[in-house]
Amino acid sequence: MSIITGYSTHDIRFPTSLSGDGTDAMNTDCNYSAAYVILNTTPNADSNAAASDTLKGFGMTFTIGKGNDIVIEAIKQLSDKLVGMPIESLFSDMGAMWELLTSDSQLRWIGPEKGVIHLATGAVANAVWDMYARSRNKPLWKLIVDMTPEEIVKCSSLKYLSDALTPEEAVQMLHERQSTKTEREKRALQEGLRAYSTSVGWMGYTTDKVQRLTKEALDLGFNHFKLKVGVSVDDDLARAKVIRDIIDDPQYQNKDKRVHAKTIEGKNAGPTGNVLMIDANQVWDVEEAIAYVKKLEQCKPWFIEEPTMPDDVLGHARIRKGLKDIGIGVATGEHCANRVLFKQLLQAGAIDVLQIDACRLAGVNECLAVMLLAAKFGVPVCPHAGGVGLCEYVVHLSMIDFISIAPTFDRNVVEWVDHLHEHFKYPVSVNSHGRYNAPLDKSCGYSIEMHQESIEKYTYPDGSYWKYEHPTIISKLQEGRRYV
Ligand SMILES: [Mg+2]
Fold first, then answer.
1. How far, in Å, CA of 196 to CA of 431, rounded?
2. Residue ranges of the Mandelate racemase/muconate lactonizing enzyme C-terminal domain (predicted)?
């Protein structure tokens, strides 16, 4: 029986701070980074098989630069726990695999289930899921939607959630959706999953660039757009107007555009059926958030994302209540440390939209648990994907949500940013209706395998980009710059 023989880790960083990609009111100089792990197994028993046929598992967690090396150290300690384990015994109980990673009594002390250790758990657990899907020649989403309700629930991290959702209730919910599952799978394969664009509205982009990108996004069939806000009301209103003037103008609409009323219900859509969302990335205190967002009322957003500190459950509830009369909702999740925080946000009625992150939560197991929780509370899951590799991951999670879990699937939208997909062997794509195409390659696993050349070039600090190209670019950028 094949066993996990070892692993390699890679600190991969992309210089996105040079272009302003990923910039917002809080994160002003992001270098999109991956703390990356490759799990290796015993060579294929077939002696004629090429070495490249040996099963591997690829996983990563996302950071924005500094500290990526710290996450790598945690990934090593967690990966050590898997070395020597037979892969089929891991695959036979993926819930137990997750318990193994999260229950180390010493490592647990530096969490539990939050921060660096949890980010690292996401990378390692996802690598095992990637390997499992590859071993069955199915994309990850297909591996899971083909499971029985009981099997899905067995893989889900439901510990500490029973006051909100019991395993029996979760099984029951999934059973209720079984009879229409095939129909939804067919639809997802034919139409894809509705995406929204964040690429149009990064804080560091000029007006010209925002205008150009918004028109391009409309051409691509998008009808949901997100703008970063929170530095100045006047500037936010001006940039929101730039976007609204384009998305609300009939002359810029994609001729093939089809918008079903149900999909934009309660989202403050404009006259052409387009929806704007705003994102503050945690810059405000609670009352400040309410006062500030009220000043942005005229740009009619569907929701304000991350208005305040992500741990502040009651603060989010207060903001949601404070904005109810002007019809602006509250969304959060990309910085929510674990499923318990999501449970409390839902129990407190604090959010209108839940935004899971595929690797801030500790991998597929915990994401399944949170999607089940959201389904119980009837809250749409619109995953966070602003980063490297996150779009590749979340399309699988949203396929699972759409087909097997979510009662709100018509209203769900998945974040799309058009950065760095070229580094992945199975990059995600969007179709001409602004929707994610379903990953279909039987070898893609969780779609997170990077090209070897990209790993080598962008490894920090010794990859060829960081060693040779970056210093040259930086010195050119600084030519003629005056320091006072
Ligand atoms: Mg965000």
1. 12
2. 207-326
pLDDT computed for residue 199 by the predictor: 79
Catalytic residues: 228, 384
β-pairing verdict for 435-436 and 193-201: antiparallel
Alpha carbon of 368 to ligand 1 centroid (Å): 21
Sequence ranges of the domains in the chain: 182-436
Residue from 413, 435, 423, 354 nearest 388 by CA = 423
Q: How far apart are CA 140 and CA 126, in angstroms?
A: 10
The pLDDT averaged over each successive group of 10 residues in the chain (484 residues) is: 95 90 74 97 68 86 97 98 97 98 96 97 98 98 98 98 98 97 96 90 83 92 93 94 95 84 94 96 97 97 98 98 98 98 98 98 98 97 96 98 93 93 97 94 98 98 96 78 56
First to last CA, the chain: 66
Report yes or no on whether pTM surpasses 0.90: yes
Q: Decide: 445 and 131 in contact? Cβ < 8 Å.
A: yes
Distance 329 CA to ligand 1 centre (A): 14
The two tokens of residue 16 are 């996105």
Distance, in Å, from the CA atom of 238 to the CA atom of 152, rounded to the nearest integer, reads 47
Dist. CA 14 → ligand 1 center (Å): 19
What distance in Å separates the CA atoms of residue 363 and residue 361, rounded to the nearest whole number? 6
Architecture of domain 182-436: Alpha-Beta Barrel (3.20)
* Number of Cβ atoms within 10 Å of the Cβ of 255: 5
- Which residue's entry shows tokens 């809080």? 26
Predicted pLDDT at 206:
86
SS3 102: helix
Spacing, Cα 80 to ligand 1 middle (Å): 33
Cα 443 to ligand 1 centroid, rounded to whole Å: 31
How high is the pLDDT of residue 272? 94
What SS3 class is residue 278?
strand
Predicted local confidence at residue 476, as pLDDT: 79
- Ligand 1 centroid to Cα of residue 133, in Å, is 29
Contacts of 272 (CB under 8 A, 6+ apart): 247, 248, 249, 250, 253
- Burial (CB < 10 A; 0-12, 13-18, 19+), residue 183, is exposed
**CB-based contacts of 343: which residues, under 8 Å, 6+ apart?**
160, 161, 163, 164, 165, 373
Contacts of 183 (CB under 8 A, 6+ apart): none
H-type alpha helices, 166-276: 167-178, 181-191, 207-219, 233-247
* Cα Rg of the chain, angstroms: 22
DSSP 209-240: HHHHHHHHHHHTT--EEEEE--S-HHHHHHHH
> Is there a contact between 276 and 245 (Cβ–Cβ < 8 Å)?
no
